[in-house]
Design brief:
single chain, elongated, two-stranded antiparallel sheet, mainly alpha, 4 helices
């Protein structure tokens, strides 16, 4: 049991797990902001453009059930905004990563002809030694 607790402690305190937890908390807060943006700004503007339509009241009553498809439309808009934000964020991260990799490749020192000859001699001596 003690070994299990130690292994769990090492796992839980690794940087990746903590980074993931921070990402989840920030993501939840971002989701609330996006929901507020959609519910309180975007959808009322869209409703106004569509002639004063209130999406929160769009529903269909089928028997005893009420299908609130207006709220579903708002959830779709929420999802699209979050997906767009993630897409842009990932594109920026990938471009920064590519730029950093290109800079690292440029930073590699060039091999001078004398170094190349020394490598060839080393390889030849190694071959000779093996035979």
């Amino acid at each position: 049991m003690k070994k299990f607790v130690q292994e769990f402690k090492e796992f839980a305190l690794k940087g990746n797990v903590i980074d993931l937890a921070i990402g989840v908390v920030i993501g939840a807060a971002f989701g609330k902001i996006v929901s507020s943006l959609v519910d309180n700004i975007i959808m009322p503007l869209v409703g106004m453009v569509l002639g004063g339509l209130d999406f929160t009241k769009l529903s269909v009553k089928i028997g005893d059930a009420t299908l609130k498809y207006g709220l579903f439309i708002q959830s779709i808009v929420d999802f699209l905004i979050v997906a767009l934000a993630l897409f842009v964020f990932i594109k920026v991260l990938l471009s920064l990563s590519r730029r950093r990799n290109a800079e690292e490749e440029e930073a590699e020192p060039e091999v001078t002809p004398s170094e190349e000859y020394l490598k060839e001699i080393r390889d030849l001596l190694q071959e000779k030694k093996e035979n």
